[in-house]
Design a protein that fits this description.
Layout lengths: L5 E5 H15 L3 E5 L1 H5 L3 H7 L6 E4 L2 H9 L6 E3 L9 H6 L2 E5 L2 H9 L6 E6 L11 H13 L3 E7 L12 H11 L6 E2 L3 H6 L7 E2 L26 E13 L4 E2 L5 E2 L4 E6 L16 E4 L2 E6 L7 E4 L11 E5 L5 H7 L4 H6 L7 E4 L2
Parallel strand pairs: 1-18, 2-3, 2-9, 3-4, 4-5, 5-6, 6-7, 7-8
Antiparallel strand pairs: 1-10, 10-13, 10-17, 11-12, 13-16, 14-15, 14-17, 15-16
Helix pairs in contact: 6-7
The structure holds pyridoxal-5'-phosphate.
Pyridoxal-5'-phosphate binds next to helix 9.
Length: about 350
């Protein structure tokens, strides 16, 4: 028998979540965001599952985009950071890829490169995130330059929201975006998952949902994934591989950061930070054993986690454990660990065997 850890990827949940995004988007079209190996779920697997549901795929790496084309995917592909060097541009035309253009350097590269076909581009505008995008001063001359550049086809105006999941919302950025876009009739692309779910006014042009496709909530403090109609796609599961009986006062694991206050049974689970479980998850992080919710105790180690078996008299070696997914929302684990579902899902490591289900 092999080490019992598994990531089970539920393709029907992925498709169902995309259908929720589709419904929410109304007339807007959907880029399924597949960056970071489809948030840890597997790029090709996710692309295949969403083939007839998403209108296009948004990703980060040129190699991934080329791999999708070589695998036969024909839908539009958006590269969210565009190109980094002018010598990548011929690949964009060869493989029909759409770059995001967010710097003057990229504009110069586009304007000075002769291409065999015109490229559609997404022009990214900085409306307050202050990460990528052109300023209001840069925008108009650049738009004119792109509209007249022989290498450029249609220009779509795009921005990204910093607070769509928070109380501040998107209105303050939308006002700025509409100022930018005033007087032009270019297509637009605005909404991430949080904006798509929360703000009807962001459901224009092409939406860019990511996290909701994978069944996690973009605002877990306010609304659970389940309440949003989303189902977990990744279930990380394993088993108990050993049991220890502790006396009162005994400590657990590296650094002995957890001390048993009374005699207790603990289970040792085959899952650690080398599988992608967060090392910073404190004692008390929720975990399922035999389908029942208990808590981790002690420090997460490379290959193992310890769990409290109080009240789980039937649990022992071989008992099934769910780290997150079916029965235990990844958002609950992320919240306990002081992070977000995105980080946990993306962090799944290559050593974890993946099983697909299509229930
Ligand atoms: C990652 C990303 C998204 C998707 O965001 P979610 O919060 O996962 O929905 C959308 N747009 C851009 C530009 C991104 O980088």
């Amino acid at each position: 028998m092999t080490r019992p850890i598994r990531a089970t990827i539920d393709l029907s949940a992925l498709r169902g979540n995309c259908a929720v995004a589709r419904q929410c988007a109304g007339a807007a079209r959907l880029w399924a965001v597949l960056k970071a190996n489809a948030y840890g779920h597997g790029l090709m697997r996710a692309a295949e599952a969403l083939d007839d549901i998403a209108d296009g795929y948004a990703l980060l790496d040129l190699d991934d985009a080329v791999a999708l084309r070589e695998a036969g995917f024909r839908q539009p592909i958006l590269l969210l950071e565009g190109f980094f060097e002018a010598d990548e541009l011929p690949l964009f035309t060869e493989y029909s890829l759409t770059p995001v253009v967010h710097t003057l350097d990229q504009v110069d590269m586009l304007a000075s490169t002769v291409l065999p076909a015109r490229l559609p581009v997404y022009l990214k505008l900085n409306t307050g995130m202050n990460r990528l995008g052109l300023s209001a001063e840069e925008f108009h001359p650049v738009l004119t330059a792109l509209e007249t550049a022989p290498s450029v086809a249609a220009v779509t105006l795009m921005t990204h929201f910093a607070d769509a999941d928070l109380a501040r919302g998107i209105a303050w950025q939308l006002v700025r975006f509409d100022e930018f876009a005033q007087g032009c009739d270019h297509p637009v692309s605005l909404a991430n998952s949080a904006a798509l779910l929360r703000f009807p006014e962001a459901r224009r042009g092409w939406a860019r949902p990511g996290i909701m496709l994978y069944g996690a909530s973009p605002f877990p403090q306010d609304e659970s994934a389940e309440a949003l109609g989303l189902r977990p796609v990744m279930t990380l599961s394993s088993q108990i591989i050993a049991v220890q009986e502790l006396k009162a006062g005994e400590r657990v694991g590296y650094g002995g950061i957890f001390t048993a206050e009374r005699p207790m049974r603990i289970g040792i689970v085959a899952c650690g930070y080398a599988d992608g479980y967060p090392r910073h998850a404190p004692s008390g992080t929720p975990i399922l054993v035999e389908g029942r919710r208990t808590r981790t105790v002690g420090r997460v180690s490379m290959d193992m986690i310890m769990v409290d078996l109080e009240g789980l008299t039937e649990a022992g070696i071989g008992s099934p454990v769910v780290l997150w997914g079916e029965g235990l929302p990844v958002d609950d684990v992320a919240t306990a660990a002081g992070t977000v579902s995105y980080e946990l899902l993306c962090a799944l490591t290559a050593r974890v065997p993946v099983t697909e289900v299509n229930a």
